[in-house]
Amino acid sequence: MDTCAFIMSGMEGACKCQAELTFSMSLHAITDMSSVFHCPPEPPVDRLAPGELDRLRLKMLEKGFLGLPDAVELDRKLAKLCSRYEPYVQALAGRFHLAVPPWAGTAEPEK
Length: 111
Known about the structure:
Elements: H1 2-10, H2 14-36, H3 52-62, H4 71-95
Helix pairs in contact: 1-2, 1-4, 2-4
């Protein structure tokens, strides 16, 4: 859902359309699971470390993704989307004693 939210916050084209569909289905599943397991939404935890969004935005620009919004607009849009699912993710993680992973990993993928 994090990847979908990031794409929806600042990319255009087919990739954004797929992210919107995936986000919608995932949100539906997560809210349903929360209901089934009696997990009311919890206050969200900010999993995006300071400066991480700027790093991700720059990485996307380096990879050729143009047209990303400025950092303030990207942050605003991303926060709005994350607020829709984070409370449910936190509730389910607590219910099943799971750690919610950081928003973005630090390791570079293998080539």
